[in-house]
Design goal:
By secondary structure, the chain is of the alpha+beta class. Helix content is 29%, strand content 13%. The longest helix is centred in the middle third of the chain and has 17 residues.
Length: 178
């Protein structure tokens, strides 16, 4: 390393900006006297999974990386899915599940949906990825999201997002509010 030389003017400017300094005699940090916050138990995720109470009529087929997915609840008009696809409903919240395993993704997704309903979001955007790096022959997260959303009691409809928002690697979800 080469030593940098400062002009006398720069040195005076630096000392003027820093002000008076004193050497540190002790490098130990003293406790501020504040008590540490009390730990709280992890939330029980079973109550989150209570939202997956809806039964599925037929088995959900396994989808591939580039396959689009969609669903509309039987009590919802079919044109609702078309409106969702065309962007009639603007997403009000978004979550990205990339890099999560199946269990982590389920917990994050269900918590996100619960919070979205609580915040009165009508439409949300969920990025699950296309599963190209999946160890299986099919995209694991995409297929699980497809299944979980169909079972969720607050989901009215969902469809694959347009290419600008993730295409077959993301979905728009229409939520029913209490």
């Amino acid at each position: 390393m080469t030593k940098k030389f400062l002009s006398e003017e720069d040195r005076d400017l630096f000392r003027g900006a820093i002000g008076k300094v004193r050497s540190v005699k002790n490098d130990k940090v003293h406790d501020s006297g504040q008590t540490k916050p009390k730990p709280f138990p992890k939330p029980n995720h079973k109550d989150i999974e209570d939202h997956l109470g809806r039964s599925i009529d037929a088995s959900v087929p396994i989808v591939g990386n580039e396959d689009e997915i969609s669903y509309v609840h039987q009590n919802i008009p079919k044109n609702t899915l078309l409106k969702l696809r065309q962007g009639y409903f603007a997403p009000e919240a978004e979550i990205d599940l990339h890099g999560l395993n199946r269990i982590e993704a389920k917990i994050e997704l269900l918590g996100f949906l619960r919070e979205s309903v609580k915040m009165r979001c009508h439409c949300v955007h969920i990025v699950h990825g296309k599963g190209y790096r999946s160890e299986e022959q099919y995209p694991i997260l995409k297929n699980n999201v497809n299944l979980w959303l169909r079972q969720h009691k607050d989901v009215l409809a969902f469809c694959s997002a347009p290419p600008k928002d993730g295409g077959a690697g993301a979905v728009y979800v229409l939520l029913g509010l209490p």
